[in-house]
Specification:
The structure is a homotetramer. By secondary structure, chain A is of the alpha+beta class. Chain A has a single domain, classed as Thiol Ester Dehydrase, Chain A (Roll). The first copy, chain A, has 3 helices and 7 strands. In chain A, strands 1, 2, 3, 4, 5, 6 and 7 form a 7-stranded antiparallel sheet that branches. In chain A, strand 5 and strand 6 form a beta hairpin. Chain A is globular, with a radius of gyration of 16 Å. At the B-C interface, helix 1 of B face helix 1 of C.
Amino acid sequence: MFVHEMSIRVRYGETDQMGYLYYGHYAAYFEVGRVEALRSLGLSYKELEEKSGIMMPVMSMQVRYLRPGFYDELLRIQTAIRKLPENDITFHYEVFNEKDELINAATVKLCFILAADRTTVPVPRSIVEALNPYFE
Amino acid sequence: MFVHEMSIRVRYGETDQMGYLYYGHYAAYFEVGRVEALRSLGLSYKELEEKSGIMMPVMSMQVRYLRPGFYDELLRIQTAIRKLPENDITFHYEVFNEKDELINAATVKLCFILAADRTTVPVPRSIVEALNPYFE
Amino acid sequence: MFVHEMSIRVRYGETDQMGYLYYGHYAAYFEVGRVEALRSLGLSYKELEEKSGIMMPVMSMQVRYLRPGFYDELLRIQTAIRKLPENDITFHYEVFNEKDELINAATVKLCFILAADRTTVPVPRSIVEALNPYFE
Amino acid sequence: MFVHEMSIRVRYGETDQMGYLYYGHYAAYFEVGRVEALRSLGLSYKELEEKSGIMMPVMSMQVRYLRPGFYDELLRIQTAIRKLPENDITFHYEVFNEKDELINAATVKLCFILAADRTTVPVPRSIVEALNPYFE
């Protein structure tokens, strides 16, 4: 299993008039979580797109909103990959507030497609190789 | 069962560099879908908040991304309530593109809380009464 | 002078915890305003990009926030082109709330570039021709 | 004069299909810039709202888009206060890309209002005192 952690501070424009981090913005946090998780493995999503012509569209997302997130809170995003990816890759998320309470839990599954013709391809070798040590 | 339909045109700022409607923006479309569904029943979410002091935070969301949404497409949002709500309310969504292809299917569950003390309350009577005719 | 009007309803996720339409979201409304203004002239920005390979990046924006916009308000967006465009095009915006009060006034200037090599080009002939009748 | 610097990485969802950081998202970056500038002075905007009941709505914004911002770039946001605020406060922004090129220059003016009755008040004493040393 591979686990990565990082923090994101809630922006004012991400709150709504309920005073909560708007439920739609967690998706952007999850995106940042997985990009930084990959970067910590030496993988750049930007280069994957630019050099390999591979894009990663999202196939599905499940989110449970357990507690609200608030303005200016430094949320801790825990991103985990629980099994070695083959045809698609699943990220498991847990978001904690500054009191270390779990406020959100989510799963996001992405696939790999060629930008050129939008056909599905298996997970790139570079990702498998970077993750391999965590699943031996 | 209660079903409502409306359309939303994809804004340029809602696309990403993949050329797709960004996966995080569907949540906002679902919000618009349920607000307009309630409005078609004679219910105003704005008034619910202002007059009854009741807010509806989201408890969970499941989304399946079947096909991409593209810039300037007029997407058809179908919002359904499949059972009479009691303690929470679940909206089922289907999003269709201009070729009438299903591009997205989702479920969003919300609860009801008092703005004053953030305690959970049952579904407001006005919502039950407006929905009742569809479940007899 | 060419003037176009349309309405946009403020989404919940576009409010902030101050209860105002967040100041950063007006830019998206202005985008919708000019796209719909062009569409009313028989011009599709989407086709401009796809068929002519021309994109319109924003060069500058000035915004005055006169009154807040609120959730669920149906805002009226007035988009004006005050002079026939040559090398760039300037849109003048006035946003009114449901009480017909001016809440926002803005100016957005865009240029035209070729997607292929990102070089600047003059305003496309189709736009000049569509606007010509309003400036005779 | 008071100057503060910080960095923000461009998120995927903040790009548009032109491959640029969408022009409307700079406003959120400016918000983060001024909040962090204030925090570096020992001032918390969150506490200002919660403890003093003072909110800071934006009065005006001018933005010049000089070069595009791109996905995954770590943009450097320079936030400056050029004169001691009295009734309102003006932030001057310069945004640089990783090549240290100026890509965006902006000015944002905010005022101070009481949350309770939305009346305008002068700049809070705590802000003047924190800034005073930079203007002597």
